[in-house]
Amino acid sequence: MTRPEQPVEMVPATLDTRKRWVRVTGERAGGFIEFDFAIGEPDLIVEMILSPEAFAEFCAQNQVEVLQPREPGSATDEPSDWNWSLADATQTRFKA
């Protein structure tokens, strides 16, 4: 591996941690709400599941912006090794 002649300047990302988003991704038995939650960058998410009451409280406390559900067939829905979720894994049988 070769090193560049000039040192590469590292510039920290600018994330506004005051911005928070949720995107509802589904509903489970008992009314539990599946959703993605993001802070500072809407595409960097964690998957969560809460009861409807807890979800409403969570959204109010975090002052979230609710994102529209992803459109089927959109660029983010294209299959790839990097485009999956834990919810997808629950529908997959793995061989040992």
TrEMBL record:
Pfam families: Phenol_hyd_sub
Domain of life: Bacteria
InterPro entries according to UniProt: DmpK (IPR010353)
Record protein name field: Phenol hydroxylase P0 protein
Organism encoding this protein: Geopseudomonas sagittaria
